[in-house]
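[job 0417] fold request received: Helix-turn-helix transcriptional regulator
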Amino acid sequence: MSPVASRALARRLKGLREEQWPDAGLTQAQLAQALGGLSISLISSWENVQKPTRAPARRLEAYATLFATRRSWDGESLRILPLEELTDEERDRRKDLLDELLWLREGNEPVSAKAAVTDFWTFEENDQRITIVCAQLPEKYRRHLSYADPESADFVSLYTYADPDALIELFGHIRARNPENPVTFRTSGKLDPDDYTSHLVLLGGVDFNSVTKDVIKRVELPVEQVGREAAGAHGGFRVKENGQSKLIEPQLDEQGHLLEDVALFYRGVSPFNRKRTVSVCNGMYGRGTLGAVRALTDTRFLDRNTAYLRERFGDMESFSIISRVPVVGGQGLTPDWTLEENRLHEWPEAAA
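[job 0417] inference complete; emitting structure tokens
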């Protein structure tokens, strides 16, 4: 097995533990216990990128089963579910992951290179910085939350971020897809000059995220986000169709419960560095922003949504899509862009 292949497998195993569920904070000790009471040093040797030890195939089977489903982690303990308890989707995910790990173990090129062809969150060149930009939650929403107060002993900086669920989802995915690239996240008020000229990924809309507002003004995008400043207004995305202005709005019931958000995904050339990209994942509410993210991270929809974008926009440098994000039981659902009724606006318009 070549040193390059050995390091690729070690990097992937470490990435599964650290980045598959970044909010879980899984330790080598927890993983060792879940895999049958192994030693921490053994897990460490499999993850050692400089001098890796090749994990046995049967251990890779355990890895694949473990990381095929979030149900392996209940918030306190990590365990391998019996195969018969896996759903069909989880079985498919297990098979794909096991194929990848065994492929790497045999010294082949990383399967993730195949994903680089289809995944919009894979950046081709190593060592290019990727900066995810979130808004800071306005002070009026933080003032009664001790976890968001720097003076409190319970302070957690992530509580000061708007759209933390979208941030966690996307940060883990981008890190996993780009192991050789530095990936960071910032609030919109704390960017330095080098952040602006990296690959920019903007989460959230113009109400909170000033960088999203600035970038949308600078790029070629015939979509205007109408904020929620006016009392009782829910805002929306203003577009032009057949020469007519149209406002695409979220849907709420009479009690103010969100029934359907709207999400914008935009990809284009960065206005600050022509050799870098800017991406916008934005909704009128947080569930729309998360929906824009999960459209291209959710393994159940990633392939079909990516294939749709490739077919619809080809090699265009700049494009956008606005879609529905249904909300059921308070949870935003991942939009399926292959369904025509879910696509509310596309730019550039399709050729006649």
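[job 0417] notes: Residues 267 and 279 are 4 Å apart (CA to CA). The chain has two domains: 3-110, 130-347.
[job 0417] exit 0
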